[in-house]
Amino acid sequence: MPQEIFAQTELADILGDEVWPGSEVGTRVGSNTLDDAICKQARTIFHPAGTCRMGDSPSALIDEKLRFNGIDGLKVTDCSIMPALFSCNTNVSTLISAGRAAISSFRNKQASA
Predict the structure, then answer these.
(1) Which strand (E) or helix (H) includes residue 95?
(2) Distance (Å, rounded) from C-alpha 83 to C-alpha 81?
(3) In the chain, pLDDT over 70 holds for what percent of residues?
(4) Average pLDDT, the chain
């Protein structure tokens, strides 16, 4: 239906060529070409990782001790701090990371007391 709307003379003069899925992909009932185009283009990753820069760089959000730069007392231990997606379930890696962060925080608290 959108292809038919955009093909109207009033809009076709304003709009450029269709970028995706393309004019050769039909949307009429019974045509699977749009479904095929979607399946070919669709991508997913179930457990994104590595979205949070870590290190001592000014642009890093997290330091090597998992402390959030700019907010005292906040640590981040989810998959965003992992440099890449592991082949195992990311829940396990996150739990281990969180456990280590908790132990580190506990030891730091004991040392300062």
Answers:
(1) helix 90-112
(2) 6
(3) 87
(4) 79
Tokens representing 95 are 């739990």
Token representation of residue 8: 């109207």
Residue 18 and residue 3 in contact, taking contact as beta carbons nearer than 8 Å = yes
- Which residues are tagged catalytic? 47
Calpha distance 109→103 (Å, rounded): 10
DSSP β-bridge partners for residue 6: none
Bridge partner residues of 54 (DSSP): 62
Give the number of other Cβ atoms within 10 Å of residue 63's Cβ.
14
Amino acid at 103: I
Q: What are the structure tokens assigned to 104, written together?
A: 């580190």
Amino acid (1-letter code) at residue 4 = E
Triad 33, 40, 86: Cα angle to 5°: 160
Q: pLDDT tens for residues 27-74?
A: 666 666 777 888 888 776 666 777 888 888 888 888 888 888 888 888
Kindly state the tokens that stand for 72.
């005292």
Q: For residue 21, is the peptide bond before it cis, meaning its omega torsion is within 30 degrees of 0?
A: yes
